[in-house]
Write a structure and sequence with these properties.
alpha/beta, TIM Barrel, 8 strands, binds hypoxanthine, binds zinc ion
């Protein structure tokens, strides 16, 4: 185990911003900033139901997940052409690189677009080209995870999978997002079983607003490798033990949880407790354009609110690599870079 060198507390925010990290829970449609929504609307000849960027931004006051999703799906309606998807992902990837993200696995919601008549090829090709360019232009690796919308039917999910399969070399896995309550993971048991046969990586949102039972069924019915959010696990001691024992990663999103009133005060967020219970928790931004911050804002704000230290920072960044679907060789390189970046901070003291 790496011995964490002493780091002055006032240097912690700079350390958090500088350390290499992976982002594993980011909905690319949730990275659409109001300015980009307006410029894409103009480019595509669309009129938005908001008079200005400021008016749109001021509508971002959420009381729960559904109140956010309604506005998030409306924002995504400006995406029509391959170049729109490319530009959105390109903007996020540049922003992620500036936050010392070295690897990211991006969620996308094809049904949000195919329901509006946008071909799935337009979506996937635009996003995939931005991921490829990120490697050469920004030096970061990026891959795609296709998410099924859980408020829609199993039949719709199967139809989406069929449409996506000719492009299977352009995404690495599938996930499950959108309205959680009333849509338990088992609704998609057969879809996930098929995706498993196809060799795709599996993840699912569970335990964001939903009960621990949804986390159990994501694990035991869908057989996912990671749980997105999962913060409600703390209500079930046996589940906490299972997650810790199996090192099942949780992709936690502190500012999202605050803005959607899961933990209305960041001081009460349970990330620190999850980590200290031995869970493989990670920090992520979820929908950074809507929740007031990218990954480094999530790190600095949750650390300030809960009093976590450099030791927690090391563990979270290390967990993000462990939890990723990257190769073991890449993981080793990033873990090494993480240690180096800690050592650099000590030398400059
Ligand atoms: N939860 C569920 N669905 C989502 C989210 C989320 O936090 N963000 C975008 N789609
Ligand atoms: Zn999410």
């Amino acid at each position: 185990m790496f011995k964490i060198p002493p780091i002055a507390p006032e240097r912690l925010p700079d350390l958090l911003r500088a350390i290499p990290k992976a982002e594993l829970h980011i909905h690319i449609e949730g990275s659409l900033e109001p300015e980009l929504i307006f410029s894409l609307a103009q480019r595509n000849g669309l009129t938005l139901p908001y008079p200005s960027v400021e008016a749109l931004r001021s509508a971002y006051a959420f009381t729960n997940l559904q109140s956010f999703l309604d506005i998030y799906y409306a924002g995504a309606s400006v995406l029509l052409h391959e170049q729109d998807f490319y530009d959105m992902a390109r903007a996020y990837l540049a922003r992620a690189a500036a936050d010392s993200v070295v690897h990211t696995e991006l969620f996308f919601d094809p049904q949000t677009h195919t329901a509006r008549g946008v071909p799935i090829e337009t979506v996937i090709n635009g996003l995939h080209r931005a991921c490829e360019d990120a490697r050469t232009l920004l030096g970061i690796s990026a891959s795609l995870i296709l998410c099924f919308l859980r408020h829609l039917s199993e039949e719709d999910a199967f139809a989406t999978l069929e449409q996506a399969l000719p492009l299977q070399d352009k995404f690495i896995g599938v996930g499950l997002d959108s309205s959680e309550l009333g849509h338990p993971p088992e609704k998609f048991a057969r879809v996930f079983a098929r995706c498993r046969e196809l060799g795709l990586h599996l993840v699912a949102h569970a335990g964001e607003e939903g009960p621990p039972a949804y986390i159990w069924s994501a694990l035991d019915v869908l057989k996912v490798a990671r749980i997105d959010h999962g913060v409600q696990a703390f209500k079930d001691a046996a589940l906490m033990q299972r997650l810790a024992q199996d090192r099942v990663p949780l992709t936690v999103c502190p500012l999202s949880n605050q803005k959607l009133c899961v933990f209305p005060d960041l001081k009460d967020h349970n990330l620190r407790q999850l980590l200290e219970a031995g869970l493989c928790a990670t920090v992520n931004s979820d929908d950074p354009a809507y929740f007031g911050g990218y990954i480094n804002d999530n790190f600095t704000q949750v650390f300030a609110a809960t009093g976590m230290t450099a030791r927690h920072a090391y563990q979270l960044a290390s967990n993000s690599f462990e939890a990723s679907f990257a190769s073991e060789a890449d993981k080793r390189i990033w873990q090494h870079k993480l240690k180096e970046s800690f050592e650099r901070f000590v030398e400059y003291d």
